[in-house]
Design goal:
Elements: H1 8-18, H2 22-29, H3 36-47, H4 53-61, H5 71-87, H6 96-105, H7 109-114, H8 116-121, H9 125-139, H10 160-187, H11 192-202, H12 244-247
Pfam families: PNMA, zf-CCHC
Protein name: CCHC-type domain-containing protein
Keywords: Coiled coil, Metal-binding, Zinc, Zinc-finger
Amino acid sequence: MSEGIFSEDQILYGLRRALRGKASEHLRRAGVGLTLDVAVRKLEQEFGCIKNVDFLFQKFYSIEQKASDDISTYCARLEDLYELIVKQGGCSKDNTEILKRVLYKGLKKELKQMAGYKFDTVQDYDKFKMELRIIETEIKSPEPDHKKCHAAVKIEKNTYEEILKKLSKTEELLMTLNERIDQLEQTKEPTDSDRQYDQEYSHGICYRGGYRGNSGGRWNSGRGRGNNSGARGRGVYKPHRPTGTGTMQPTCFRCNEKGHIVRNCPKLTI
C-alpha cells in the first residue's frame, strides 16, 4: 500500500478473498463499509499475538536448531519469533546483531564449531546465514555415484521365535507320550505265560539242567544243575522282564497240549 500500486479497496478486496474460516467470518460480520485499517486492527485483536514481550524474549533466546532442521528452516522459525518481538515493541527491526548472535548460539554442535570463524569475521546477518548454508552443504557427505552390489540374502521363513515355539510343542508332545506310556504300563494285566514264568523262577528252577537225559527219559525236579532249592550249585539268573521262553505258549511233550510243560502236566503219573 505504501508503494501506491494498489488502492485500499483493492487490497481490502484481496484480503477478503484470501481469508478462510473464522477470519473470513469475522470480517463478514464487520459489515460492508469496513476500511482497510479497521480490518487489519480487528484481525490483530482477534488472531494477533497476546503474549507479552518478556515471554517472547525468553522463547527467543532459548531457541535451538532441531535435528531435522536445516539452516533455512531454523532461520525461518527464528525470524518469525523475532518479528513478533518487533511488533510488540521489544526491539528495533534493524537490530540484526542480536538476531545473528541468537542464530549462532542455537546451532548444532558440529555446525557451530565450524562456523566460529565466520561468526567473528562476517558482520551482516544475511551474509552470515549464507555462509552457514555453505558449511552445512560441506558437512553433508556426498552420495556415491554407484550403488554397492550386495549378495542376495535368502530370508528364512522360520524365525527364532517360531523355532522356539516348535521346540516347545515337541517337548510337550514328548511329555504327553511319556505319561501315556506310564499309564499303559500301570494298567497292563499280566498274561498266563508271565505268571508261569514268574512262578517257575521264584522257586529257583531253570530249564537248563532240570531234565536228566537217562534212558527212561524221566523228569528230575529235585536234582540237576538248574535246581537251586538247596542253595547249592550255580545261582539262577532271573531277568527283569520276560524273555522269549516266557512270552511264548509252551507245548507239553507228553499230551501235546499248550499252556504247560511236562513237569506240570496233569496227566503225568509218578
